[in-house]
C-alpha cells in the first residue's frame, strides 16, 4: 500500500492535470489526421502545472498494428516510464483517440486529442476526463526537438485559449541536459530494472537509474 500511495502522490504533482467543475470544454480536433506520420519521439515543452523535467513521449506501432504511447518524465528526482495502448473510437476522427495507461486505469482510459500538428516539428495535445462533480484537464505542447520558436509556442497557446482553456496554466518543462537520457527514454524493450516498482507497462525508481519497461504481448 505504501508504494502505491507514494506513487499516486508523485503522479498528482507530475502529470499536469487540473481539476475543474462542470463539463469538459468543447474543442475541435485536427481533421485528416495521419497517425503513422505522428509516430516517433516527441519532447514535451509545456504542460499544465507539472513539476516534471525531461518529459517526452514515444508513439509506436507494434506488429499487430496496435498503437502505443510511452511516457518518460522525471518529477523530483524520480524517473517514471509508463506505456499505454491507444484506442480509436468508432465514427470519430483518428485524432480523437484514448489511451489506457496502467496508472490511470482506476479512472478509466483518458482521451488524447491532437488539436494541431505538422508531424515534423510541433504538436498540440488536449486531454479531459470526466470525474465526480467535474473533470480533470491537461494540455501539452510538443516538439520533435528540445525547443520550438517562441512564435510557434505563442500560436499554439492561443489555440488553446480560443477554446476557453487558460493558457496561463502551462508550465515550462526543462529539457536541458535531457538528451543524455535518451537511452532511458527509448530502451522500452528491456526488462532489467532492479529495485523498481514496476509491471509489464510501468516502471519507477528513485535516483539516476535506468527506467525500463517491457512491451505488452
UniProtKB/TrEMBL annotation:
It comes from Tetranychus urticae. Residues 1-16 form the signal peptide. This is Lipocalin/cytosolic fatty-acid binding domain-containing protein. The gene is 107371231. Keywords: Disulfide bond, Signal. It comes from the Eukaryota. The keyword Iron does not apply. PROSITE patterns: LIPOCALIN. It holds the Pfam family Lipocalin. InterPro entries: Calycin, Invtbrt_color, Lipocalin_CS, Lipocln_cytosolic_FA-bd_dom.
Amino acid at each position: 500500500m505504501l508504494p502505491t500511495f507514494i506513487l499516486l502522490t508523485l503522479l498528482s504533482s507530475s502529470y499536469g492535470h487540473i481539476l475543474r467543475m462542470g463539463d469538459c470544454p468543447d474543442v475541435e480536433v485536427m481533421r485528416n489526421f495521419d497517425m503513422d506520420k505522428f509516430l516517433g519521439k516527441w519532447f514535451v515543452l509545456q504542460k499544465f502545472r507539472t513539476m516534471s523535467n525531461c518529459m517526452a513521449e514515444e508513439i509506436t506501432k507494434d506488429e499487430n498494428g496496435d498503437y502505443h504511447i510511452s511516457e518518460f518524465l522525471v518529477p523530483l528526482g524520480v524517473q517514471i516510464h509508463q506505456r499505454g495502448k491507444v484506442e480509436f473510437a468508432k465514427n470519430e476522427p483518428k485524432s480523437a483517440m484514448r489511451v489506457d495507461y496502467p496508472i490511470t486505469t482506476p479512472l478509466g482510459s483518458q482521451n488524447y486529442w491532437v488539436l494541431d500538428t505538422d508531424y515534423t516539428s510541433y504538436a498540440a495535445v488536449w486531454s479531459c476526463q470526466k470525474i465526480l462533480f467535474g473533470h480533470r484537464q491537461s494540455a501539452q505542447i510538443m516538439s520533435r526537438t528540445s525547443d520550438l520558436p517562441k512564435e510557434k509556442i505563442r500560436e499554439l497557446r492561443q489555440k488553446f485559449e480560443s477554446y476557453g482553456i487558460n493558457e496561463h496554466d502551462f508550465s515550462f518543462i526543462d529539457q536541458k541536459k535531457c538528451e543524455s537520457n535518451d537511452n532511458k527514454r527509448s530502451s522500452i524493450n528491456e526488462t532489467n530494472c532492479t529495485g523498481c516498482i514496476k509491471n509489464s507497462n510501468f516502471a519507477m525508481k528513485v535516483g539516476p537509474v535506468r527506467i525500463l519497461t517491457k512491451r505488452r504481448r
